[in-house]
Specification:
35% of the residues lie in helices and 20% in strands. It has ten helices and twelve strands. The strands form three sheets. It has a seven-stranded parallel β-sheet, sandwiched between helices. The radius of gyration is 21 Å and the shape is globular. This is Flagellar biosynthesis protein FlhF.
Amino acid sequence: MRLRLFQAAGMVEAMALVRAELGPDAVILDSRRVRGGVEVTAALDQPAAAVPLPHGPLPGPTSPLARHNLPAGLAVRLGAGPLDAELSAALRFAPLPDGRARPLLLAGPPGAGKTLSCAKLATRAVLAGARPLVASTDGVRAGATEQLGAFARVLGLPLAVTPEPDMLRHALSHRQPGQPVLIDSAGCDPFDPVQAAWLRSLALASGADLLLVLPAGLDPAEAAETAAAFGALGARYLLPTRLDAVRRLGGVLAAASLGLALTEAGTGTGVADGLTPIDPAWLAQRLTAPFRLESAA
């Protein structure tokens, strides 16, 4: 899905821009008056382009990568040399933004672990001597605000409940210079135009970096399509969760191969130590670790 924001002096001019760039099948998601004219958000659903398979043998059944169900092209590329070097060349890795330079907005599908990840990041900030501004925009899921509020109370932090963009903008106006800002959002289906427009409006209102929180263990094709859709909404960073509970990482790598930078991984439920930085060496070790079939019981 292509999502674009257009500004023009009037609606007629804005619609002409939409049609010229996205074509007659574009869908108008939102329009509003702004200083100097109007602002229109439009989207165009596009079928995913077929990815040609590179020449070369796929990793064989004895390869430690075979069990991860990687996309074929990525599997060939990663099998071409030392795994950590090939991971570094094929994927992006970046430090997780701390919310100081720009607010950090955690987004993702329902149940991905956004609220717990937000609590982990808030705990990290407090332990480092900061008092982050923590906000929840989740007015959808029952108990979501209470869950994050409980973590915030333990940390001695207030929680700003801001289910609307204007409320979020107002809460951020009280931010102190250099204060980290962490924003937890409701689960979003990025293929739903209304939900996609809502998430985009929150990102625009806050000026935030968008962090995609995505559970490991997804079907690789599903993970890649989801990452592409959130990428179209502005996501540039990826935090995979549940790496303490899954053994196949094809979905994580498929999502990262769409250009999102791998940052850290959710590797436990503890709020003080449940995130692990991802770098090529660590990821290579996880991909090639012995595959244990027996139960821990």
